[in-house]
């Protein structure tokens, strides 16, 4: 259940879990299982993970910025 997973990721993200922050961003960005994509919220969470030092989040954020997808 993606909605339940997102809820858990968001809870963990609020507690500072960087991986959960990134995963929440991915779900929000894609919209898979939650209806409509939420690109602003998704990129916000991915940006938080990048600022916390997660290399994959840094890479993904840079890719979005280079493509102008922000």
How would you describe this protein?
The protein has 70 residues and is mainly α. 74% of the residues lie in helices and 0% in strands. Helix 2 runs antiparallel to helix 3. 29% of the residues are buried. The model has no long low-confidence stretch (mean pLDDT 94).
Q: Termini, distance in Å?
A: 28 Å
**pLDDT < 50 stretches:** none
* Extended strand count: 0
Oligomer: single chain
Radius of gyration: 11 Å
Beta-strand content: under 5%
Number of helices: 4
Largest pleated sheet: none
Residues in helices, as a percent range: over 70%
What is the string of helix and strand elements? HHHH
Mean pLDDT across all amino acids:
94
- Overall shape: it is flat
Give the helix/strand class. mainly alpha
């Amino acid at each position: 259940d993606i909605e339940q997973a997102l809820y858990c990721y968001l809870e963990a993200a609020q507690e500072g879990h960087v991986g959960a922050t990134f995963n929440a961003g991915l779900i929000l960005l894609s919209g898979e299982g939650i209806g409509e994509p939420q690109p602003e919220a998704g990129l916000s969470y991915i940006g938080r993970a990048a600022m916390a030092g997660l290399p994959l989040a840094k890479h993904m954020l840079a890719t979005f910025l280079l493509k102008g997808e922000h």
